[in-house]
Design goal:
By secondary structure, the chain is an alpha/beta fold. The chain is built from ten helices and 14 strands. Strands 10-9-8-11-12-14-13 form a seven-stranded mixed beta sheet, with helices on one face. Strands 2-3-1-4 form a four-stranded antiparallel beta sheet, with helices on one face.
Length: 290
């Protein structure tokens, strides 16, 4: 595996992500450099041709990816816990003793371990954190009404959303991603956090075709608009009556295209959540269309 990398200024991030989107490249990892306003951006690639295209388009450098023992690196961490509402704490520790220590310190919280890895979704990105907040709020509604609910995550990355859904009470949970690396990472994270089974599988959304009559009370899709728009009607048809569709990963300049696609396909008016340059959508299948 190869890695393309480049150091950029913070004000370049939006234009770089826009160019990635136009190139169909969605597996970038962006980190802020410690003690600096600059960002380190990496894209993990399987072949030299893709790497050279990125280098030609955006500069930067291409190296062979060095193996890293992520479990060892993240056995203990100084990164602050990520708090989601009053229910969830996310740590990048993967050591069982460290996780149990956090659980003892916060006995009323659900503690989730998501170590750093080559997949998107550690809880600190605006799109993931917004999805998590929406999911926790909905789970509380189901808990209050003592209702059973099911969950499906499209583009699961690290598996943080289905893991959260399961820990918040969903009785049937599944998720899929087109990237086999993400599948392996998500399965590892399920083992770290859960005893009950989550159905995780490799699948391209464009080829996704659930069994006839299959539906879920909550579906999440944290993906770019260019992938979401041509698949939105298919996804919406799989949301159960009175269920929810949560969308994220949509840049502000593309959110109108999603609204237009939703309106064209008969979806109700969503509730919008804006965080920085990102927009998230919450659709309820029983909302009246305005």
């Amino acid at each position: 595996m190869l890695v393309w990398s480049k150091i950029i200024s913070a004000n370049e991030q939006s234009s770089i992500e826009e160019r990635f989107l136009n190139m169909g490249q969605t597996n970038a990892v962006i980190r802020k450099l410690s003690g600096s306003e600059k960002l380190h951006i990496e894209v993990y690639l399987k072949n030299k041709k893709e790497a050279q295209i990125l280098k030609k388009e955006l500069g930067g450098k291409v190296n062979k990816l060095e193996y890293k023992n992520w479990a060892k690196i993240n056995a203990s961490s100084n990164r602050p816990l990520i708090k989601i509402r009053d229910k969830i704490l996310i740590t990048d520790n993967s050591d069982a003793k460290q996780i149990n220590k956090i659980k003892r310190q916060y006995p009323k919280k659900i503690v989730i371990s998501i170590p750093a890895a080559l997949a998107f979704g550690t809880g600190d990105h605006a799109t993931t954190s917004t999805c998590l907040r929406m999911l926790v709020d909905i789970a509380k509604e189901y808990q209050k009404g003592n209702e059973k609910w099911s969950f499906c995550d499209i583009g699961l990355g690290t598996g943080i959303l289905p893991i959260t859904a399961s820990l918040m009470g969903a009785f049937k949970v599944e998720g899929f991603d087109f990237d086999p690396e993400a599948i392996a990472i998500a399965k590892r994270n399920v083992i770290i956090n859960l005893r009950n089974k989550i159905n995780i599988y490799e699948q391209d959304l464009f080829d996704w075709s659930p069994k006839k009559g299959a539906s879920w009370n909550v579906i999440t899709a944290n993906i770019f608009a260019n992938v979401l728009n041509p698949n939105l009607k298919k996804i919406w048809n799989r949301v159960a009556d009175n269920g929810y569709l949560l969308l994220s990963g949509i840049l502000e300049e593309h959110h109108n295209s999603v609204l237009q696609t939703a309106q064209k396909n008969g979806l109700p008016v969503p509730k919008l959540y804006c965080k920085g340059k990102w927009v998230s959508f919450k659709f309820n299948k029983n909302y009246l269309k305005i």
